[in-house]
């Protein structure tokens, strides 16, 4: 029998993968369970959705990443129920017992109680989501080319992105570039250059996590690209024909959701208190109240920083949490006390199309071309795997010079939705 | 009104695309209709199915390829009915009238009357097929890793390819390489190196279009890679648990179909004679008997060469047919007589895993490493678009040195089928 303690990690995102790696030399055996076979670099997922990158550029098989770490077994599967009393997780087929459990299953889209909007306004969390959105975007231009009626054609050439956070800003900016620069010469009956791109944000400004002057710069860059930015206006309805903003309507056949997230439902099975978004309120060491052997990391964890602000739901926070859980488990195994998690904010950045980005690093704030180079370098650096970095660089250089997008391939099935 | 004759081309494969290009300077307007948005380099499709290449490596949007050819309009859509009397095609929404019609919609899989086999043994014709097969192959290894029962595990690690033509040989060889070289270090509970790969051919030898000594060489290479080749044995049953070969059974959870093709059903609407596989028996100039304004090219056309052998269903034949149809249309427009189509056989080649291939070029026959380099160069040369060639070369070099496969990414939905 293997006398090592068994650490079960649910989710191979930033939280789960960083915890797994940080336990490489610990005297434990680890099982890493994920619903997909890959770790996904989510910050660039919008580029797969907008046909700039292919899936392998931003995803790598978990078992390939971890091939040399002999104390970990990677399994493809989904956790369906957690039984904390018996320290057991039920999968889609079989069960797994654990000594320590890390739940890092993240978040999904939330439609603020309007689940019927999901069908008309898909969100972007997984590669499958990205392929679905790519299909919708490219098929909309194809439908416009086939449509003779000018009103219906305009609705196919109208795109709405809901949510003015980094993903919404990046999607809207890229959509405008595709319409203005990538496609025009290729169509004969419609003019993609006449496409309308709307970005809708309920709050007073886009990129609300950034300082105000950077938000304002992002708004100007979006306007320069041809994006119509609607701030301070909440969506009140979404259907197949478009959206409602109070009494106004925007006709659009392609609405994308980048607004709300809800935590993974697994958190609710722990009997612990949840916050408004369904996240688990964790102890300062990231363990679950009443269960020192269960931890939560990443977007599923709810924790306040020393200044009272919540730890944000971003990739660096998830990585740091994962690594911290590994430290706590090591401390426990050694009979030492667990330390509290402290989030280190290394900054915040977002890109708005070609050659423009905004960067906020402590006291450093800058935007424009320099910020864009900074964004590019940082994202390349954090991509896992040398091959990915090389090919992504080639793809980006290619797109930069030619305005072309490499991955404009859609299948046959969902032709016109 | 546009007084130019309207040429309607159904299908953007080799036949349709080569005809379109050859009409670039003709005084016609062209509509090219395809069910997908891309031209597909089918000879490398098996590499997408086996996770070696990504979709954009072997596919490019038709409207991007043809962006500079101003006399062509590309439409995404599907022809549903042909009305030769009124020179009209009905689409999924709307109709298109034509002066000249080229039908180049190719072939799909055929299961010799066993349509129930389709569910258990998918074939490989489209990118969607390739993604489905990739998902099955990778998910089978994942299922083996989760399976504790040795008999059930062995069935997950057993792969059957039916059909010993080029596609079947390439699939089986690549599957054996993945099991032996790509995956072993990455699994903890099962050993992918113990996987069984079976290639089943009803005829007396694999690659039957090749000279006998090259078939024999291919068989030896397959055996060296660990593929069990069954020749002279027809499949008599396929279900979820495996296949039947007469009285014998092979247990397998992953069966792939590379055996039979059937022509596109559009051909049957012309009132012309069809051959046994449903192909349209065309006149020597590739027009349809009784309809000099309708042509068929590629896998849907049935035509005998001067020596009585049929023109084979391969990419070079489809390209030559497409170009010939363009010549005939130009001749008709100029009041000249149409010439007969003559197929020029430039040779035949197939690859069997790393560093091995067989080549038959007229009197030239060779195999082994030199043939493999020849195969690689030829395929790179014929790939459309410089960017594709460059990235495919990088991917191949990477795979060659590392034994890794770049595109091992599967989605969440079809996890365990």
From TrEMBL, chains A, B:
The lineage of its organism: Bacteria, Pseudomonadati, Pseudomonadota, Gammaproteobacteria, Lysobacterales. PANTHER family: EXTERNAL NADH-UBIQUINONE OXIDOREDUCTASE 1, MITOCHONDRIAL-RELATED (PTHR43706:SF47), NADH DEHYDROGENASE (PTHR43706). It catalyses: a quinone + NADH + H(+) = a quinol + NAD(+). It comes from the Bacteria. Residues 347-397 form the External alternative NADH-ubiquinone oxidoreductase-like C-terminal domain. The chain crosses the membrane at residues 366-386. Its EC number is 1.6.5.9. Keywords: FAD, Flavoprotein, Membrane, NAD, Oxidoreductase, Transit peptide, Transmembrane, Transmembrane helix. One of its GO terms (molecular function) is NADH dehydrogenase (quinone) (non-electrogenic) activity. This is NADH:ubiquinone reductase (non-electrogenic). It comes from Arenimonas oryziterrae DSM 21050 = YC6267.
